[in-house]
Every structure is written in structure tokens, then in C-alpha cells.
Amino acid sequence: MTQLTPVLTENWDRPDAFTLSGYGDYSAARTALGTDPDRLIQTVKDSGLRGRGGAGFPTGLKWGFIPQGDGKAHYLVVNADESEPGTCKDIPLMMANPHVLIEGVLITAYAIRANHAFIYVRGEVLHVIRRLQAAVREAYEAGYLGSNIFGTGFDLELVVHSGAGAYICGEETALLDSLEGYRGQPRLKPPFPAVAGLYACPTVINNVESIASVPSIVANGAGWFAGMGTEKSKGFGIFSLSGHVTNPGQFEAPLGITLRELLDMAGGMRGGKRLKFWTPGGSSTPIFTEEHLDVPLDFESVGAAGSMLGTRALQIFDETTCVLRAVLRWTEFYAHESCGKCTPCREGTYWLKQILRRLEKGQGTEEDISTITDLADNILGRSFCALGDGAASPIHSSVKYFRDEYLKHFELGHCPFDPAASTLWGAGK
Amino acid sequence: MTPESRESAVRVLYERLESDAKEIISRYPKPRSALLPLLHLVQSEEGYVSDAGQQFCAEMLGITKAQVVAVSTFYTMYKRAPAGEYHVGVCINTLCAVMGGDQIWEELTEHTGVGHEGTTPDGKVSLERLECNAACDFAPVMMVNWEFFDNMTPESSKQLVDDLRAGKEVVPPRGPDKLCTFKQASRVLAGFPDGLAGEGPTAAGPSLEGLKLAREHGWTAPSPDREGEFES
Known about the structure:
The complex is a heterodimer.
Chain A: H1 20-23, H2 27-33, H3 37-47, H4 59-64, E1 75-80, H5 90-96, H6 98-112, E2 116-121, H7 126-141, E3 146-149, E4 154-162, H8 172-179, E5 203-207, H9 208-220, H10 222-226, E6 236-243, E7 249-254, H11 259-265, E8 275-279, E9 288-289, H12 299-304, E10 313-318, H13 323-337, H14 343-360, H15 366-379, H16 386-412
Parallel strand pairs in A: 1-2, 1-5, 2-4, 6-10
Antiparallel strand pairs in A: 3-4, 6-7, 8-9, 8-10
Helix pairs in contact in A: 2-6, 2-9, 3-6, 5-7, 6-9, 13-14, 13-16, 14-15, 14-16, 15-16
Chain B: H1 3-26, H2 35-46, H3 51-61, H4 65-72, E1 86-91, H5 94-112, E2 125-130, E3 142-144, E4 147-149, H6 154-165, H7 182-189, H8 209-217
């Protein structure tokens, strides 16, 4: 059986973990700053670390794309805009262990030769922002940020920047526009941020958990990290279980663990109910069902089974839950968060929402099912950014696995489920 | 608002916020990056992004007010009308909705008589339907001035709002020892710490579920396979 591997979560039960004295002395950064930056990039490449924000792009490769000796300023931007429905790992990480992120920022900035870094954190998490601000201040006071860090001559300024409520800003180029003081709308790529990112300068944008994994790789070696996980999905990650499980929460484990194993660790389905559907990595990843309980949760296996590992946001829904209601609500979310820049997403999510509303009420027709899949087909791959693709995921996957439930709604003329049974306090408990 | 009264409102903002605004602008390589924090700063003074506040931001950055409005209307945290002293959000994204957020929203709006982005007549509480706030393992989740309130029920949500309106002390379970006001929260978001970071737990409840299990079973990450990779 797979065992948990707490690394980033290891100190979360210490009352002072979020302070510098409770965290440590940035020894990994000290080591890193005494090393050739290119060697650090190679180490992260060797470790096999892939982006923990959902896409799974190799982190070291991304760093390697930054042109060196180009005479331009380089920037590091941490994507801490965690907003994907179901995703709830970076927020507790920054609350409990902000210094591991800042140490990772220091190492990464040094590796890519950036002297200015930003943590773009969603604005709706006040206490997390306090913890980040305080940790950054402590790091400055200790000389771990600012000028001539560890006497190496390396300088780094780090700014904690609060967003203002927009899911789309988790998309890396929308985030850059937002950080530049504009509406958060995605940019056309290429040029990619590694060439023309923040202020049109070479920029690395990494997820919180990716950057926070770097100090442990430097301290323990690429081989140590690569020794965990699967062949192509190496290392550990935080798996977030929520919904109809007995003990929801954060479980840090090697990639490749299965939901069956995680559910077992979380005390099983609550009230012994049956698992109906779940998301492997947030609402933008096509839903899975009971038949996927043994799919290894790594990038390749989840992809081969028709979904995406995403952010390992495992939202668990039991047999009391109406899948149409879930899909409608996600669709309302995408419609609300669509930035309006491109037509397929802006118009498509609007019409999906209208049709799903009548389907959920039992007022739809079989033709509506074709219409929503057609609409989703016209959004997927035709939108400016991944938000549109994400909006299509719940539609396609729910029709694939639960077509009968769609039919049942308009056969009956109403939703066959009692929402009260699904609640925290409900009969399904 | 007449042009004259707006001008005088802008001048008041200069008196109160100009030095803070300059400090914010100095954090960034390019001034315009300061716009989001400047709008939070305006909210910390006015409780919303007022017309004068947007004019103030425009002047501080040397851009037009239209450019500021284009940005302020894009982001949901910037309020077009004064928020309550306590801005209360109920997560109604799928997982929280299914776990009871829908019922909480229904009962809470009935109880308070205000709807989405509405404010109680006493100005104490405003309500918002929130999208996912990244605390799904604590569902159903509510936020007050962007502090977490976990595992809520219709009863606890109504009690919470009643307590806020009655001026009783309310303690967020994963936040500081006392709730701050919407304006005070906005000032922290603008980048001016309030010194409360040390209060509240490191982590709580579901955040610790995996670690607790690992400790019980003696599970750890493997030991480093070699040392001194970078020491030469």
C-alpha cells in the first residue's frame, strides 16, 4: 500500500511553523546560492518536478527557457491565485508554511537570474496574506531577501501582491496582465512568458506548490525526489479530498497513489454511501466514476483514462448527488468567470448555462443534450485559453457517464434527487 | 455628484491616502502595477471604490479614470456600493453548494432580507454569493471580511450574522483572535500589515488529516539518498 510522504505539510502541526524561527535557517537556499545557477536548473530538470498548478509542465525545462545574458530584467512570479473549484492545497500551505515558499522563491530567482519576484495571491484569503506579508518581512530582516543575500552579491526584492477576485487570473498570462494593472485577460501565445512576460521581459510563472518543492530537492537531491512517484510523474504532491468522505483533508503522497487508497485513508465514503462521481483535479478535469478508483493519480494514467491530474483536487460526490446540479453549478461558475475576451467561451458558457438550467428542472428535451455537447465541442480547443476548455469538461464527461440521468430528469419532469440528503447535516450523513 | 463635490472628495483622499499610495507605487518596477492595491486602498477608506477614489487612482498613476473603471469593474472584490462593515460570503460553487451552501444561502437571505451584494439597513452586513474560496475540505464554507468560517450550517450562519449585527465578538476559526472590519481588511490587501499574522492556528482540522495519519503510522518521506550534492 502507498504511504503518505509529508514534506511540505510536515511542519503543519507545529504552532510556530509559519514563523522563521519555527521554519529554519534557509539552509537549502544558502547551498543553492553557492552553486552555479545552471546546475540548479539541471538539478530541477533531473528531479522530474512537473508544474503542480495543473498543467504538469516540467519545471526545470520552463526555467531553462529563460534567455540568459540578454541584458533584460528577469522576473519570477508565483501563481498563488488558487481558485480552481475543488483546489485547496496552496492556501493551507501558505497559511502554515509560508517560508518554504519564500525559500523556494529565493532559489528559483537565483537560478533564472531574476532580481525581482512577486507572489500573486488571490485577495479573498486575508489571513494567508497576513502570513505571507509577515514571512516576507522576517526574511528581509534576516537578510534572506534584499541586497547581497548570504554575502553572495545576489539581490532579490519580493512583493506580495493581492488579487481582487477573478478566477481567470490563475491563467498565467491573464495573471501577468493583472499584475501590470489591467483587466485579467489572457494574452496570445507566442510569445511565451519566458520570452516576453511581465513588462515584456523574460518571466517564469510557477505554482506555489512547485516552487515550495524546490528547497527539498536542493537539500535532498534530485534522486531523492525522483525516487518517489511514477516513472514520468515524479515526486510527491498534496492531494485534497473534499465532499462526501468521512474525513476530508490534505494528504501529501507520491504521485501515482489511487483514490481507493486515499479514500481508505480518509475513512471511506461518509455513511457508507456509494461513490457516484469525482474530479481528479478540479472542475476543469473531466469527471470520473467508481470505475476509476484504481487509476494511478499521475499525469499519464489519469490522461489515459480520459481526464487530467490537474491540481489533485479530489471532489467526491456520493449517490445522493444530482450530477446535473453539479454540472450546472460548475457551468454557472465558468460563465461568471469568463473574461469575455473570446467569443466561444463568453457566448458558449452563457448558452450552456441557460440550457442546463432547464435540463436540471426537468424541462429539457433529448435534443438539449445534443445542443450542450455541440456547444461544448465549439468551445473546446477554440477558446483563447484553458478556461473555455475547462468549461467543456463537466459537460462532455457527465453526458458520457450519466446520459441516463439527463434523460430521467425530463422523463420525470423534475429532478429526482433530494438536495437535503447531500448536505453536511443531511440524511445521507 | 457634481464635478465640484467630486473634486473636493478627491482632495480629501489626497490628504488621507497620498503617502500610502506613493509607498504602494514604489514597490513596483512600473507604476501601473500598483492599480489593484490602490483600489484596495481606496476601499479601506471608503468601503467601496467610489467615483472620487477611482479619480484619485487615475491621478496617482497618470492614467484616465476610464482606464481605472475598466479595471475596477472587472474584479469582484471591488464594490460598486458601500459594503457592510462585515462583508459575508457564502460559497455556492458546486461542492459547497451540494454540502449545504445552497440551503445556507436560501435561509440566510430570508433571515436578513438582503440578497447578493445587498447590505442590511444598519450597514453592518452585506452578502455575496461566492465562487470557490479554496477551502473545500471545510465545506460548506463562508467568509467574513475574507476570513474563513468552516463547516457552516444554516443555524450557525444565521447566528454568525446576528452576532455581527449585534456587535458581539466573533472569532474566525483559522484567523486572528478578532474579526477586523471590511475597511481594515482592505488595508491589509493593499499591502499594509495589521500585525495580526501571528494569531490563530498554523493549521486546523482537515488541513492536518493526512499529517495526523502519517504520524500515527510512522510514515515519512524517504531519507535523502545522498548528501552534499552541491558541496564541492
